[in-house]
Amino acid sequence: MKKKRVKTVYKRHDNIIGYTLLAPWLFGFLLMWLIPSIISIYYSFTDFNLLNTPSFIGISNYVRAFTKDAKFVKALGVTFTYVLVLVPLRLSFALFVAMLLNKKHRFLGLYRTLYYVPSIIGGSIAVSVVWKQIFGNNGVVMSLLAVFGIEQKLSLIGNPKTALGVIILMGIWQFGSSMLIFLSALKQIPYSLYESAMVDGAKPRQTFFKITLPLLTPTIFFNLILQIINGFRVFTESYVVTDGGPMDSTLSYILYLYRRAFTYFDMGYSCALAWILVAIIAVFTVILFKTQNGWVHYEAED
Q: What is the model's pTM?
């Protein structure tokens, strides 16, 4: 009996310590995520402009988005284009650089740090302002084009045909986090596999498609989900560099949501837009998980 009591006391003591250490996270989860999410869901079914009392209107906000709001369709199209172009290019470039950095080079640690820096500062306001200056009317890019005899009346961020390309290029530039994940995965591939392939006379291209790429598919899958989510959340670049222009050619979904909430004070409608985005991201994620059995290779399955 005494031993059971002692064990019970120790168990309670451990639980108290555990919950005490977990308390800051639980507090943040409840206060910063769960409660605001519940309130946001409620507001999405109301007519609320931050000044009036919320009035319940059912699914009218959701119906309005798909049937009466042309800007919603425009912002959704711009964001889909951004994601579908950005994600493959960013992951491809990240994998390419990771493979270069996986080899032995002098100052290798310095190179890895330098390549990762854009991911740390790339989404900041300051960098977006610099990017705007570089591609603006009096920026470096326009000056270089003039040197080569290419006269442009509009800057690249002032032209509706090229403005989104500049935003995408800025997103590709922030490839460092994906690169580090790929680099870590490359180091886990046994070198004995490459030695066996070399003995059999395999060429570098064959070893890449037959060894490297299949063993990297779990990492590609992980990076793909992260980058799709981050792509749909693009805001700073579109807001600072182009402010959604010209002619709404860079009007990202989050920027439009932000305008509805804090420019037009249409908070109920903006909450509905937010949950539509959550649903879109969830659909993409489910599709990826459902299709992973056809292309993702896990060693444990063997």
A: 0.88
* DSSP code per residue over 240-294: IIITT-STTTT--HHHHHHHHHHTS--HHHHHHHHHHHHHHHHHHHHHHHHHGGG
Identify residue 101 by its one-letter amino acid code: L
Query: What is the residue-level pLDDT of the chain in tens, covering all 302 positions?
Result: 555 565 565 667 677 887 888 888 888 888 888 999 999 999 999 999 888 889 999 999 999 999 999 999 999 999 999 999 999 999 999 999 888 888 776 766 776 777 777 766 666 777 888 888 888 888 888 888 777 777 777 888 988 999 999 999 988 888 888 888 998 899 888 888 888 888 888 888 889 888 899 999 999 999 999 999 999 999 988 999 999 988 999 999 999 999 999 999 999 999 999 999 999 999 999 999 999 988 888 865 55
Q: How far is CA 33 from CA 18, 38, 41, 239, in A?
A: 22, 9, 12, 24
Rounded CA separation 162/225 (Å): 27
Whole-number CA gyration radius for the chain:
25
Tokens of 183: 């680099």
Nearest Cα to Cα of residue 191 among 205, 163, 212, 177: 212
User: One-letter amino acid identity for 246?
Assistant: P
Q: Dump the DSSP string for 123-160.
A: TSHHHHHHHHHHTSTTSHHHHHHHHTT---SS-TTTST
Q: Measure the CA angle with vertex 160, ends 158 and 161; round to 5°.
A: 115
Kind of pairing between the strands at 46-47 and 55-56: antiparallel
